[in-house]
Write a structure and sequence with these properties.
alpha/beta; seven-stranded mixed beta sheet; 6 helices; Maf protein
Length: 197
C-alpha cells in the first residue's frame, strides 16, 4: 500500500515531466534556483548526485512546498574525455559541442533523488553513447531544428539526434533525462504510488 499518492517534481524539464507521466506518477511542479557550479576535483558521479539532491532540497524552500510530500530532483550531465559538456550558450557553442562528440564515445550520468524532510535517497544511472562521424552539414541541419538548446551535450537522444547514435549502453531514459528503472526503485522505497506499484 502506497504511503504517498503524489510527489513534487523539482524540475521544469518537459522530458522529465513526460517520463514521470509514463510511470503514472501524480506530481506537481515546484522549483527554485540552485547553484550548479562544480566543485574542484568533484567526480562526474559525485557532481550529478549533489545536483539532484541539491535541486530537491532547494525546492523545499519554496513557499508552496508542503513538508508532508516527497520531492524529486534530477540532473543529467554529459562527459567527454573527462570534460563536462553543459547546455549550449548559443548556436556556435552547440556546433562546437556536436563536432567534439562526432565519432567518439561519451558518458551520460543522470542522478535522481527523492527527498522528504531530512531523508534523501538517490540513484545514478550511467550510460555510454557512441556518436557516428558527422559532417558540418549534418551539424548545421541539426542545430537549425532548435533541438540542441536547453540540453546537456547539445543533443536530444529522443529526437533527430537519434540518427547520430551508432551505439548506446546503459539507461536510454537516463540519457533522455530521468532513468525510469532507478526512479521506480526510489518510488518503491519511499512508498509513492505509481502505475506498477
Amino acid at each position: 500500500m502506497a504511503q504517498f499518492e503524489s510527489i513534487y517534481l523539482a524540475s521544469s524539464s518537459p522530458r522529465r515531466k513526460e517520463l514521470l507521466k509514463q510511470l503514472g506518477v501524480s506530481f506537481e511542479l515546484i522549483t527554485n534556483q540552485f547553484d550548479e557550479t562544480p566543485f574542484d576535483k568533484e567526480s562526474p558521479a559525485e557532481y550529478v548526485k549533489r545536483l539532484a539532491i541539491g535541486k530537491a532540497r532547494s525546492a523545499m524552500t519554496h513557499p508552496d512546498y508542503s513538508k508532508s510530500i516527497p520531492i524529486l530532483g534530477a540532473d543529467t550531465i554529459v562527459v567527454l574525455e573527462g570534460e563536462l559538456l553543459g547546455k549550449p550558450k548559443d548556436i556556435q557553442d552547440a556546433r562546437l559541442t556536436l563536432r567534439s562528440l562526432a565519432g567518439k564515445k561519451h558518458q551520460v550520468f543522470t542522478s535522481v533523488a527523492l527527498c522528504l524532510g531530512e531523508e534523501a535517497i538517490e540513484k545514478t544511472a550511467s550510460s555510454e553513447v557512441q556518436f557516428a562521424r558527422l559532417t558540418d552539414r549534418q551539424i548545421d541541419a541539426y542545430c537549425a531544428t532548435g533541438e540542441p538548446f536547453g540540453k546537456a551535450g547539445s543533443y536530444a537522444i529522443q529526437g533527430a539526434a537519434a540518427s547520430f547514435i551508432s551505439m548506446m549502453s546503459g539507461s536510454y531514459t537516463g540519457v533522455v533525462g530521468l532513468p525510469l528503472y532507478e526512479t521506480s526503485l526510489l518510488l518503491e522505497q519511499m512508498q509513492v504510488k505509481y502505475l506498477l506499484s
